[in-house]
Amino acid sequence: MTSLSDIFLATPRGFCSGVRRAVNLVEKTLQNYGAPVYVRHEIVHNKHVVENLRKKGVVFIEELSEITDTSRPVVISAHGAPKHVYTEAQQLGIKLIDATCPLVEKVHKKIIRLEQEKKNIVVIGKNGHPEILGTVGQLNNTSEYKIIFSVQDAEKLQFSSDAPIGLVTQTTLCVSDVANIMTVLQRRFGNIDALSKSDTCYATTHRQTAILELVKHSSLIVVIGSKNSSNSQQLKKIAMEAGAKKAFLIDDVSEMPWNEISDEPSIGISAGASAPEELVDNMLKELKKRYTNLKIHDIIVAKEGV
Ligand code: SF4
Questions:
Q1: Domains: count for the chain
Q2: Which site in 31, 61, 262, 278 is 20 to 30 Å from 10, CA atoms measured?
Q3: Structural domain ending residue among the three candidates 188, 216, 238
Q4: 0.85 cut: is pTM over it?
Q5: Does any domain span residue 195?
Q6: Closest among 175, 121, 181, 176 to 151, alpha carbons compared
Q7: Quick one: 111 and 180 in the same domain?
Q8: What is the mean pLDDT of each run of 10 residues along the chain (306 residues)?
Q9: Active site residue 131
Q10: Structural domain range at position 265
Q11: Are 171 and 126 in contact (CB under 8 A)?
């Protein structure tokens, strides 16, 4: 039986700048206004971040109608929100602090433009995901839009008019899945906006590229992130598609499947864009405790300074 000797660490991993900004905004709001502070939806999809903020006095809500004290500030999560939320807040006299990631806002601006151009709109993303609800929630519903998530959906897609088609995508999808869907759309709809390109963000792209590199070094991949985090789910899926023997998505070291790694020579570790670095640190501490002479290798695919 071999014993674990090498750890390959993906860089970049963990918090992206949009998540860092959103969490900082909630912390600042707590400092400036005191508790309680409302946050519409989980500020980012990470159990630890959410629990930590809850302890400091954050109350997470899904809709403004749940607010009992409208004198308290409300932070909009990094995923963004439909425009009716901003109108409602104004009507109720609620102070909104907007932590929508600027890269999500960019997608909002794009879908608004597509509607002004009277295009049929294809939204590539997970129906019901808060980012998608926020994106389609920018529309006045004067354009027809369809949400699709797979190549099969793209094959079946129909619009009632032959208006030109414009595209927007969720920022955290698998880059190659989006490319495959777009290939089908280009084949089926000759009138697709030639300028349309994926809105997958830089942080998603970097973390996915790093996972592909990790799989070249280790066939067992551990992604630290919460199960409801879209970008973390994609990292696990990409690892398996790239040939990993096993890939796990775990919230923290307490969920580490130790029996699965006992006879592995190496592990590749990454963390989704909403997972704080301390979770990776805790994982490394525990690994070093259990396995002596571990070698840690950084697999760097990009430097992020945004
Ligand atoms: S994953 Fe991308 S879009 Fe989402 S918060 Fe991070 S930088 Fe922004």
A1: 3
A2: 262
A3: 188
A4: yes
A5: no
A6: 181
A7: yes
A8: 87 96 98 97 94 97 95 97 97 97 97 96 96 98 95 97 92 93 89 70 95 97 96 96 97 95 92 97 96 94 83
A9: yes
A10: 6-15+202-300
A11: no
